[in-house]
Design a protein that fits this description.
With 181 residues, the protein is α/β, with parallel strands linked by helices. It contains four helices and eleven strands; from the N terminus they run H-H-E-H-E-E-E-E-E-E-E-H-E-E-E. The protein starts with a helix and ends with a strand.
């Protein structure tokens, strides 16, 4: 199966999860992230700002900021994913790729994070992730420090994600029921 075939299947599966269920599943995923890896003891984290069909990260961002953990989120600049450090008064907008970015903060050049939390459309039990096809996260993760963590719903698991040399295998994938490491 080709990557785009898997993407289409994953998008259809995600459409069938109700918003109420997504919130419940996201809470379970968040609790696993916090309890298993000492996430809330990190110095800094890179985390995506969730969209409608992804495990919610908004509570993760708020929890980290409340605890004084530095939070970085993605920003696409000239075709490259960079990071911006956010604060409680950051303003957000969706870019042309559907990624939510901070609009009033400039990207930072050099930073290190304890955890890099990334989204995906699909994954397999070998910790291969399939994104939307731009390669932004894979390019970013190739040079990132810290543990690469994927958040997903169990229904996004497929038998095998087609991969190539540009794809980055994650260190761990957390779902509402499983931990793949």
């Amino acid at each position: 199966m080709e990557k785009n075939d898997v993407r289409n299947i994953a998008r259809n599966v995600l459409k069938n999860i109700t918003n109420e269920n997504k919130l419940k599943l996201s809470e379970s995923i968040r609790n696993s992230l916090y309890n298993v890896f000492g996430f809330l003891n990190a110095d800094s984290v890179f985390v995506y700002v969730s969209t409608e069909n992804e495990p919610s990260t908004r509570e993760i961002i708020v929890d980290c900021l409340i605890r004084g953990i530095r939070v970085f989120i993605p920003k696409i600049v000239d075709g490259v994913m960079l990071a911006t450090e956010v604060s409680p008064n950051a303003e957000y907008a969706e870019n042309k790729f559907g990624i939510i970015e901070a609009t009033n903060i400039e990207p930072v050049e050099n930073f290190e994070c304890t955890f890099n939390v990334v989204p995906m459309l699909a994954f397999d039990k070998n910790r291969n992730r399939l994104g939307h096809g731009g390669g932004y996260y894979d390019k970013f993760l190739k040079n990132a420090s810290g543990m690469n963590v994927g958040l997903a719903f169990d229904c996004q698991c497929v038998d095998e994600v087609p991969t190539n040399d540009l794809d980055v295998k994650l260190d761990v994938i957390i779902t509402e029921r499983n931990l793949y490491k």
